[in-house]
Amino acid sequence: MSEQAGSAGKPFLYVVVCAAGVAADVGELITAAQERDWEVGVIATPVAMGGFFDTAAVEARTGRPIRSAWRRPGDPRPFPPPDAVVVAPATFNTVNKWAAGMADTLALATLCEACGLGVPVAVLPCVANALTAHPAYRESLIRLRGMGVRFGEPYAGEAGEDGGRPAFAWERALDLLDGR
Asked: Which residues form the Flavoprotein domain (predicted)?
């Protein structure tokens, strides 16, 4: 597939998907973004590609291949440059590696590059409460916020008193991009 501009001049949103159970519902974010007039391309961590979400449904919804591996030199770019990036769900591992400047996957390299280019980035963490207390995670949030990254509240997916789990706030990422 050759490099494509967003159709009809629409802004282009990269959605970076990490390996967390809530990733199964990433279609909700894609639909919400499309309803807000974004073109969407999905980049997934290699582990997320291993059954955390329905890749065929996501490709059908976006009309584009999911990216997870680097392209070879000379291969065309399947996505245009991003106007914004959403990382949802963002795992403990991804947040910490990103803050440390590690770029050992396409997803991480994309996030590091987006920050370097000044592309707006919104993040919805999906991190267990015990891990949000880890010093490395807290330091990573400080570093990334200092780089202009916008964060929603962490989602641990833990059952409440009634036994139900709170919904993952997919649209919150888009609100963060809008400055709300």
From this structure: 14-131
Q: What is the largest CA-CA distance in the chain?
A: 55
Whether the upstream peptide bond of residue 46 has omega within 30° of 0, thus cis, is: no
Q: Parallel, antiparallel, or unpaired: how do β-strands 12-17 and 39-44 relate?
A: parallel
Q: pLDDT tens-digit profile of 43-100?
A: 999 999 999 999 999 999 999 999 999 999 999 988 999 999 999 999 999 999 999 9
Neighbours of 167 (CB within 10 A): 11
CA distance 95 to 155: 14
Provide the residue ranges of all domains of the chain, joining segments of one domain with +.
7-177
Read off the pTM.
0.91
Cβ-based neighbours of 86, under 8 Å, separated by 6 or more: 13, 14, 15, 16, 29, 33, 121, 122, 123, 124, 173, 174, 177
Coil, strand or helix at 42: strand
In sequence order, what DSSP letters do the residues of 68-85 get, joined into one string? -SPPPTTPPPSSPPPSEE
Phi, psi of 156 (to 5 degrees): -100, -15
8-state DSSP, 36? T
Q: What would the two tokens of residue 131 be?
A: 């891990």
